[in-house]
Amino acid sequence: MKSQTKYIFVTGGVASSLGKGIIASSLAKLLQARGYSVTIQKLDPYINVDPGTLNPYEHGECYVTEDGAETDLDLGHYERFLGRPTSQANNVTTGRIYQSVINKERRGEFLGKTVQVIPHITDEIKRRIQYLGAKHKYDVVITEIGGTVGDIESLPYIESVRQLRYELGFGNTLVVHLTLIPYMRASGELKTKPTQHSVKQLQENGLQPDILVLRSEMPLTEEVKRKVALFCNVEPDAVVASLDVPTIYEVPLMMLDQKLDIVSLRKLGLDTERPIDLEKWRDFVDRVKHPDNGTVRIALVGKYTELPDAYKSICEAFVHAGATNHVKVSLQYVNSEKITPENVAATLGDMSGILVAPGFGHRGLEGKITAVRYARENGVPFLGICLGMQCSVIEYARNVLGLAEANSTETGATPDPVIDLMEEQKGITEKGGTMRLGAYPCRLQEGSHAYAAYGKADISERHRHRYEFNNKYKDALAAAGMIATGINPDTNLVEVVEVEGHPWFVGVQYHPEYKSTVIHPHPLFVGFVAAAIDYRDNKQK
Question: Residue 104: is its pLDDT beyond 90?
Fold first, then answer.
C-alpha cells in the first residue's frame, strides 16, 4: 500500500519538556516555506478524553480550535508557526482511542473477538494518524508523540508507528527522535550516554530513528555528533543540534542552518531544490530580538501565575504584538489571590497595561476585580479576557451602578447576577456540557476601540466559557458608561464591553489569544500594546 501523503513521527527520549512541539512546528514551517502543504497532530498518552478538565498546573493551558475541540497547548504552537487552523483531528488522546474502541465493542462490531491492545487499539491509533492524510490534502503529516520513550503509556503509539512504517513503506515515513545531551559542569563534558540508551529503548520497541535532534545548553562538537551517529545507527548529517535560543521563533532558522528540512525531504524522496521563502519570518525574529521602542511593562493578573505555560497563548500573543509595535513586552505575572485594595497601587503602580486573565471558579476572583478597578480609575490600558471581562462587568456594577452584591452565579447565589448561565444551560451537570466552545461570530460597534483594532465590524473568535453577560443589566450599565460594543448577531449575547471616557478599556468574552500567529498578530493585542506604549510615554513626560 503506497501513500501519496508522507508521514513524519517526532518522538522524545531521556526527559520530557525538551520541546518536541517546537521541533515539529519548526520542521513543518521549513517544509511549508518550501511550498509543501503540511499539518501537525499530537498524540497524547494520558487517559483523559481531552485536557479540558485538567488543572493548568498539570498540563499547561487548554488550547481551543475553531471547531471547539479542547486540546493540548502544542496545537497552539502548530497554529502560531504555520498560520493554519487545526481541528479535533489534530489532537488524539489515549482516552479518546479507548473510548472509541469500547463504543465499537458495545455496538457489537467485534462480535466473537477478544478485544486487545494489538490489533484493536493500535488499529484505531493508525486510523487516527492517517485520517488527516487520507484525503490527500497534505503533502506531509507530522505526528508528535507525547511523553517519553519507555513510558508504559506511550507503548501502543510506538507500536502503531512501527506497524505503519511497514505498511506505508520506509520511503513514505520518517522518525525524528529528540533527546537530551546533558552537560556535566564538574568535568566540563557533554554526555551522550542518555541518548544512546534512549535510542536503544526505541530500537527495542522496533523503531530505528532516521534523524536525531540533540537538545543541549552547550554547543555540540563535531566529535560528539559523530559519536552519536556511530552508536545510534544514524547518518552524520542526520544528527542535528537544538541549542537554547533567545526566542522559540529562532528555532526554524537554527534547523534551516543545519539542513534538517533538506535531510528530511531527501529521506522522504521529495524535491529538495524548491526555493524557500522565510523573509517575513526573519523580519519578525529580528524585531523580537532587537526592539527599537524599548520595553513596556504589562501585568498579567491571574491565579496560575507560578506556571507561565498556563497562559501560553497569551504570552505568545504579546510576543507577536510587541514585535508589531517594535517593543519588548515585559510580562509581570501577578497572583490575583494576593491583590487587595490596600496593596493594589503598590503592585500595579508601575505597569503600563493590565490584563486580567481567563479562568474558572471563585478563587482569586476578588483580586481580579480589585485590579480591574485600579485600571479603570487610574486610566491604565486594560484588557479583560473571558473571566477577566466578566470581572470588569462585576466591578462596574458594584462600584459605579452601586449594586454592592453584584456577582457571577459561578460563585454562588447573588441578588444581582450580572454574569449568569443561559437558561438552556441550567440543569446540565456533565462537565463540558454547558461550555460554549469554538468559533462564534461577533458584530462590533463603529467608533469603539475594538472596531478600531480590527478595522471591520464582523469578526469571528473562539470561546471557552460557561457563564454569560446577563442582558437584563445591559441598559443600566450602558447608561452608567459601560457599553456593549460587540454582540453575537445570532444569539444577542454580549461579546465585548468598553468603558466610555477611558483611554483603552476593553473586555472580551472570547479568547483572542488563540488566533494570534507570527504572520498575523492579533489586532486586539496589537492595539492593547500600542495603548500601553502611549501610556508609558505620557507617564514619562
Answer: yes
Q: Which of 120, 177, 463, 511 is catalytic?
A: 511
Strand-strand pairing, 239-243 and 211-216 = parallel
Q: Does residue 92 sit in helix, strand or coil?
A: strand
The angle that helices 20-33 and 260-267 make with each other, rounded to 10 degrees, is 80
Q: Which of 159, 463, 513, 522 is catalytic?
A: 513
For 109, the grid coordinates are: 462490531
What's the rounded mean pLDDT across residues 486-512?
96
Length of the chain: 541
- Whether 62 is catalytic is no
Cell reading at 422: 443561559
Average pLDDT value over all residues in the chain: 93
Residue from 218, 215, 214 nearest 185 by CA: 218
CB 42 within 8 A of CB 86: no
> What gap in Å lies between CA 484 and CA 494, rounded to an integer?
6
Top-confidence residue, 217 or 381: 381
- DSSP per-residue string spanning 243-282: E--SSGGGHHHHHHHTTHHHHHHHHTT--S-S----HHHH
Alpha carbons within 13 A on the beta-carbon side of 519: 12
pTM: 0.93
% helix, strand, coil for the chain, step of 5 = 45, 20, 35
Burial class of residue 264 (count of CB atoms within 10 Å of its CB; 0-12, 13-18, 19+): buried
Confidence check: pLDDT of 424 > 90:
no
Name residue, grid cell 529521506: 267
Q: Which band of pLDDT confidence, cut at 50, 70 and 90, is reported for residue 60? A: confident
**Catalytic residue status for 386:** yes
Given the residues 232, 386, 391, 442, the one annotated as active site:
386
Which cell numbers hold the place of 475?
441598559
Residue where the block lists cell 522496533: 206
Residue with cell 472580551: 508
CB atoms within 10 A of CB 517: 18
For the cut 70, the answer to whether the pLDDT of residue 500 exceeds it is yes
Cβ atoms of 81 and 251 within 8 Å: the answer is no
Please say if 61 is a catalytic residue.
no
